[in-house]
Amino acid sequence: MPSDPIILAFDTSAAHCAAALLQGESILLSRAEPMSRGQAERLMPLLEEVLAEADCTWRDLTAIGVGIGPGNFTGIRISVSAARGLALGLGIPAVGVSGFDALAEIGDGLPAIRAPREQVYVALPGQEPALMAQDQAESLGPLILNDDAKAQVQAIARLAAQNWQSTTTPPAPLYVRPADAAPSKDAPPVLLEE
After folding, report:
1. Residue 37, SS3?
2. CB burial class (10 A; 0-12, 13-18, 19+) of residue 33?
3. Widest distance between CA atoms in the chain
4. What CA–CA distance (Å, rounded) separates 110 from 130?
5. Residue 193 pLDDT class (50, 70, 90 cuts)
6. Residues 23, 2: contact at Cβ < 8 Å?
7. Which range (19-33, 44-58, 90-104, 120-134) has the least confidence?
């Protein structure tokens, strides 16, 4: 196994499936595929392709980095559950990285993550993350939007590399608002007794 830590990072919190492999301070390989659906089916094959292309195996990994949101509820659950499962199976730490932290690593400005209906998620200094209209967020200053999935997943890899040794808890989704989906209002099925 190489002496420099190897971090595999991935993110499916928006309309993409993205992965990056970092060794030491160098990004060995990164990919981002735009997709509105199908991240669950594409994530593991994409990770295997990235590892194979970089001539690495799962056992070479030092840690996992994963985007925890905010963003698409299903996409966040896909990545976080995959990261937790891989970390458990490989016996390595998984580091959750918020989209806000990843975007702040990319550039200067207010990190803003696109949401439905011309809204964005923002995390103002000293405040809880919030959902607001994009034009309202733009009035606060220049925005760093999550439009470059490849740059974002590379930032996740770099932040995971900085924090993997001090991580003590598994990654958990970062949700800013409740899900749009509601429980079924249909009556539950009648259970038949034998």
Report:
1. coil
2. middle
3. 66
4. 13
5. confident
6. yes
7. 120-134
In the structure, what pLDDT confidence band is assigned to residue 3 with cuts at 50, 70 and 90?
Answer: confident
Give which of 145, 137, 161 is closest to 64, Cα–Cα. Answer: 161
Q: In the chain, what are the domains?
A: 6-106+148-166 (3.30.420.40)
| pLDDT tens-digit map of 75-85 | 999 999 999 99
Collapse the DSSP code of 189 into the 3-class scheme (helix H, G, I; strand E, B; otherwise coil) and give the result.
Answer: coil
> Residue 120: helix, strand or coil by DSSP?
strand
Name 142's Cβ contacts closer than 8 Å, sequence gap at least 6: 108, 109, 110
Report the interhelical angle of 39-53 vs 73-90 (nearest 10°).
Answer: 50
Mean pLDDT, rounded, for 25-36? 97
* CA distances for 183 relative to 74, 77, 116, 125, 186, angstroms: 16, 18, 21, 35, 9
User: Would you state the structure tokens that stand for residue 19, as one six-digit string?
Assistant: 């992965």
pLDDT of residue 190: 73
Task: Say if residues 79 and 91 touch (Cβ distance below 8 Å).
Answer: no
Q: Please provide the distance, in angstroms rounded to a whole number, between the alpha carbons at the two ends of the chain.
A: 58
- Check pLDDT > 80 for residue 106: yes
Task: Answer for the pair 152, 103: CB distance below 8 angstroms, yes or no.
Answer: yes
Tokens 């990994």 belong to which residue?
61
Q: In sequence order, what are the beta bridge partners of 16?
A: 34
Give me the pLDDT at residue 32, please: 98
